[in-house]
């Protein structure tokens, strides 16, 4: 059997899922995407497009917000994840870093990191080793490790929660809006670390992001969500050259700045077409 | 002067008995942000089970063990039936659920056992401690002293449990942020079952000690009312605050009764704690040791 006869199985495959909140609010209307082993995939879209919902559907945090996957399926390493709870998923290697950081404010930075290792049973030495690994990627939080996480800066909190996810030894990190509320330079620093984690530790990433410029620069493949649907996807380099993406997400219109009315009209038309 | 000291000490010691009840509230509030209205009913449940087992002729420690197991099973059942379906609902809904649970447990305990008054003897005499009485003339009850000691040990071990190790960290993480805790793989269900079980153990100890003092009957669940001012003084989410709050209230009400009583009329002991709580609510609503909500600027 040759290599090519076996179709490569992606790490994560989302098949046409539909998500309804509270039994009435239809948020995702058929989203499909794939994350290959070792990929950095970005999920673009405006507020309310369904990025966070997609990530929470994967990590099974929807239930607690009374959301429900009503159609479609999600496969992780070829297995459907339907019945696994959030802790089960963490054990199997999917870890979500939620939007807005969500540090445990009254715990110290180091305790925050250690909570990430809750599901692990491989002993203190291994956990200590990973703690050192996290500090080597985020030397900034090493200095603040005894401080209450509620009092450290936004950037340090973001680093803490990414580090916390790493402590679970994940294969896939779902990173929700890492740039939120951070200075551009810090955002760059965090994405740079994401790239290194991907290359050196082999962690795959699915990143939901509004800052399309930076997300497409660091991602290999991108999906554009609009109103609960994937309206476009492709290689990051191709997407960033696409006229529509330039127009709506990168703010680089070919014909100069458009009036908002035209933009709205254009978007409405486009939605009908897709 | 010696008399004042004697009043203060016996006040402090009875304050510890309030702390013991308040402790159960704090455990659950810390871990789930829920004010457990049913804590008083849990005290009743534990005390009644314990005393009835003793009356059936079960040896003391075995009865204590069985009651302990009953309280733990109860915790798991409560988590399954009441808390789990209400995950991520507004806290007020969980609070309402505990009110319902309160009535249910009161009924259940009295239905399974009975509603009579039962005397409970723990084998600790409620008599003055002789060495102290002989040397200084102060009359301090042995029972009060033992209760304080038991309470101290309980608080210390709970403090260690909450602050060290994997489970303690997870407990505090859940207290801070449910969703984030779930996202890092901490199963809320286990954590909640653990704290409700811990609150059940505290309820058993409180129920046994208060049971000897008051007799085991329905009114024992009302000691929870005395725990409320303690909570307000100490802060709803601080274990050490509960102790300090209990001491302040215990000593305060006894001293007020003895020294203010003759001036403004007796019966101060009954309302003094609530007055103190109200003053605290006005000037220090988080209590002495309560965690203020951290807001980054």
Description:
The complex is a heterodimer of chains A (274) and B (297). Chain A is of the alpha/beta class and 274 residues long. Chain A has one domain (8-240): 3-Layer(aba) Sandwich (Rossmann fold), CATH 3.40.50. Chain A is built from eleven helices and ten strands. Chain A has helices spanning 51-59, 86-92, 109-115, 124-137, 139-143, 154-166, 184-201, 212-218, 236-241, 243-250, 260-273, and strands spanning 12-21, 25-35, 40-44, 67-76, 79-80, 94-97, 172-176, 204-209, 221-226, 229-235. Chain A has a six-stranded mixed sheet, with helices on both faces. In chain A, helix 3 packs parallel to helix 6. Chain A is globular. Residues 1-6 and 268-274 of chain A have low confidence and may be disordered. Chain B is mostly helical and 297 residues long. Chain B has a single domain (2-283), classed as ABC transporter involved in vitamin B12 uptake, BtuC (Orthogonal Bundle), CATH 1.10.3470. Chain B has helices at residues 2-32, 39-55, 60-83, 91-112, 130-136, 142-163, 165-176, 178-183, 188-214, 223-234, 239-264, 268-283. In chain B, helix 1 (2-32) crosses helix 10 (223-234), helix 1 crosses helix 11 and helix 2 runs parallel beside helix 4.
What are the defining features of this structure?
heterodimer; A: 274 residues; alpha/beta; Rossmann fold; 6-stranded mixed β-sheet; 4-stranded antiparallel β-sheet; 10 strands; disordered N terminus; disordered C terminus; B: 297 residues; mainly alpha
Report a brief summary of the structure.
The complex is a heterodimer of chains A (274) and B (297). Chain A is of the alpha/beta class. Chain A has helices at 51-59, 86-92, 109-115, 124-137, 139-143, 154-166, 184-201, 212-218, 236-241, 243-250, 260-273; strands spanning 12-21, 25-35, 40-44, 67-76, 79-80, 94-97, 172-176, 204-209, 221-226, 229-235.
């Amino acid at each position: 059997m040759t290599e090519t006869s076996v179709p490569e199985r992606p790490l994560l495959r989302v098949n046409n899922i539909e998500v309804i909140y509270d039994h009435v609010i239809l948020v995702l209307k058929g989203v499909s995407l794939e994350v290959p082993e070792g990929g950095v995939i970005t999920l673009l879209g405006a507020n309310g497009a369904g990025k966070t919902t997609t990530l929470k559907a994967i990590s099974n945090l929807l239930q607690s917000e009374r959301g429900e996957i009503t159609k479609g399926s999600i496969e992780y390493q070829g297995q459907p994840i339907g019945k696994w709870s959030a802790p089960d998923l963490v054990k199997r290697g999917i870890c979500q870093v939620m939007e807005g950081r969500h540090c445990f404010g009254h715990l110290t930075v180091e305790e925050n990191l250690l909570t990430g290792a809750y599901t692990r049973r491989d002993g203190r030495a291994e956990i200590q080793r990973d703690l050192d690994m996290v500090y080597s990627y985020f030397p900034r939080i090493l200095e603040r490790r005894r401080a209450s996480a509620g009092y450290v800066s936004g950037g340090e909190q973001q680093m803490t929660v990414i580090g916390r996810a790493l402590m679970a030894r994940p294969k896939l990190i779902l990173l929700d809006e890492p740039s939120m509320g951070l200075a551009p330079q810090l955002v760059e620093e965090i994405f740079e670390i994401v790239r290194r984690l991907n290359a050196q530790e082999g962690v795959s990433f699915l990143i939901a992001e509004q800052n399309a410029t930076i997300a497409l620069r660091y991602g290999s493949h991108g999906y554009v969500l609009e109103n609960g649907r994937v309206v476009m996807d492709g290689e990051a380099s191709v997407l960033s050259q696409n006229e529509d993406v330039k127009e709506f997400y990168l703010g680089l219109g070919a014909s100069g700045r458009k009036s908002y009315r035209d933009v709205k009209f254009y978007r409405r038309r486009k939605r009908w077409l897709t | 002067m010696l008399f004042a000291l004697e009043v203060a000490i016996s006040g402090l010691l009875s304050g510890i008995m309030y702390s013991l009840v308040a402790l159960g509230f704090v455990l659950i509030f810390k871990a789930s942000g829920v004010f457990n209205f049913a804590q008083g009913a849990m005290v009743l449940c534990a005390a009644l089970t314990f005393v009835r087992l003793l009356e059936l002729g079960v040896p003391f420690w075995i009865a204590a063990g069985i009651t302990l197991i009953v309280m733990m099973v109860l915790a798991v059942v409560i988590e399954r039936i009441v808390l789990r379906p209400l995950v991520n609902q507004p806290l007020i809904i969980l609070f309402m659920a505990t009110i319902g649970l309160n009535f249910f447990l009161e009924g259940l305990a009295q239905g399974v056992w009975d509603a009579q008054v039962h005397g409970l003897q723990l084998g600790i005499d409620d008599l003055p401690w002789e060495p102290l009485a002989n040397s200084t003339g102060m009359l301090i009850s042995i029972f009060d002293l033992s209760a304080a000691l038991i309470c101290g040990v309980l608080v210390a071990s709970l403090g260690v449990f909450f602050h060290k190790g994997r489970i303690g960290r997870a407990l505090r993480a859940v207290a801070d942020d449910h969703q984030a805790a779930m996202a890092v793989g901490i199963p809320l269900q286990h954590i909640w079952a653990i704290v409700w079980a811990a609150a059940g153990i505290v309820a058993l100890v409180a129920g046994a000690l208060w049971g000897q003092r008051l007799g085991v009957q329905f009114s024992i669940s009302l000691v929870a009312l005395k725990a409320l001012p303690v909570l307000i003084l100490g802060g709803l989410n601080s274990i050490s605050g509960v102790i300090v709050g209990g001491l302040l209230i215990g000593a305060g009400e006894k001293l007020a009764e003895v020294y203010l009583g003759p001036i403004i009329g007796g019966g101060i002991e009954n309302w003094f704690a609530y007055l103190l709580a109200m003053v605290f609510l006005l000037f220090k609503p988080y209590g002495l040791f309560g965690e203020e909500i951290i807001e980054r600027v």
